[in-house]
């Protein structure tokens, strides 16, 4: 529980540092959540999206 | 008031609400009997701290109410006959055991509580930010409106020294292909003799091309190109003269012709908007 104690003393003990922790955490959580959601969406629609099939059409244009 | 009613003598029958007490028809079901209560010893030296310390002191079965004339009334502790609810389902596992010190686990429990609070707030902040962003971005122009607000002009259609007018966002747009002589003349104009001082290089991206809104800054007429004293634009309504950079030189207009935002994706085209 040394980790929990140090985290509490460093981040949660003061309201100011608690609020800063929440703000910074929200920034990272947003990145993680959005990119994770996009990754799941692309995983489920693999082969159907334009960026997955784009190379098929680009080759024809060049010829 | 009562004493006044009592002393009012002859008027007292009229000033009383009820003159006589009348026996009611109802009788008490159980007549009140004064029962001598059993002796109940309370040890005053033993401190009352919690439910356990009370257990030796108080009666456990039913409300113990005793009435006697001289002795003190029986002691009834409400919490002795009320069953204390069991909150152990709601307690954290560290504090289930009442004989163990809770201070050993207080750091971990506190850190966990704050962690849960913080994580909830982080998710809440993210949700609130997303909702606000959605609503605010729904107010901005959509992609089709933005596409309509741009105009793409093919520059090779405009010969040197000629001005062409396009309609852009409901307003006339002047695109002027300047000659080398015009460029040199406008670049050499002394700023002190201008009403709205602005250097020519601040008004153009490529010196060959002057792109300005064809709306006179005086009262909004459309100026005539290649006319006026300065070889640029001339407003026929009230006689404002603009030079080949669209700057006001003579007449009532207060400001230079407005320069919209534009960019050159390649040498042949310009996109305004």
TrEMBL record, chain A:
TM regions (residue ranges): 12-29
Pfam families the record matches: UCR_UQCRX_QCR9 (PF05365)
Keywords: Electron transport, Membrane, Mitochondrion, Mitochondrion inner membrane, Respiratory chain, Transmembrane, Transmembrane helix, Transport
Keyword Nucleus: no
Main location: mitochondrion
Location of the protein in the cell: Mitochondrion inner membrane
GO cellular component: mitochondrial inner membrane; respiratory chain complex III
GO biological process: mitochondrial electron transport, ubiquinol to cytochrome c
SUBUNIT field: Component of the ubiquinol-cytochrome c oxidoreductase (cytochrome b-c1 complex, complex III, CIII), a multisubunit enzyme composed of 11 subunits. The complex is composed of 3 respiratory subunits cytochrome b, cytochrome c1 and Rieske protein UQCRFS1, 2 core protein subunits UQCRC1/QCR1 and UQCRC2/QCR2, and 6 low-molecular weight protein subunits UQCRH/QCR6, UQCRB/QCR7, UQCRQ/QCR8, UQCR10/QCR9, UQCR11/QCR10 and subunit 9, the cleavage product of Rieske protein UQCRFS1.
Assigned protein family: Belongs to the UQCR10/QCR9 family.
Summary of the function given for this chain in its UniProt record: Component of the ubiquinol-cytochrome c oxidoreductase, a multisubunit transmembrane complex that is part of the mitochondrial electron transport chain which drives oxidative phosphorylation. The complex plays an important role in the uptake of multiple carbon sources present in different host niches.
Protein name as annotated: Complex III subunit 9
Organism: Myripristis murdjan
From TrEMBL, chain B:
Catalyses which reaction(s): a quinol + 2 Fe(III)-[cytochrome c](out) = a quinone + 2 Fe(II)-[cytochrome c](out) + 2 H(+)(out)
Source superkingdom: Eukaryota
Residue ranges of domain Rieske in the record: 203-271
Keywords per UniProt: 2Fe-2S, Disulfide bond, Electron transport, Iron, Iron-sulfur, Membrane, Metal-binding, Mitochondrion, Respiratory chain, Transmembrane, Transmembrane helix, Transport
GO molecular function, one term: metal ion binding
Entry keyword DNA damage: no
Membrane topology summary: Single-pass membrane protein
One Pfam family linked to the record: Rieske
The enzyme's E.C. designation: 7.1.1.8
CC cofactor: [2Fe-2S] cluster
NCBIfam families in UniProt: Rieske_proteo (TIGR01416)
This protein's name: Cytochrome b-c1 complex subunit Rieske, mitochondrial
Organism encoding this protein: Myripristis murdjan
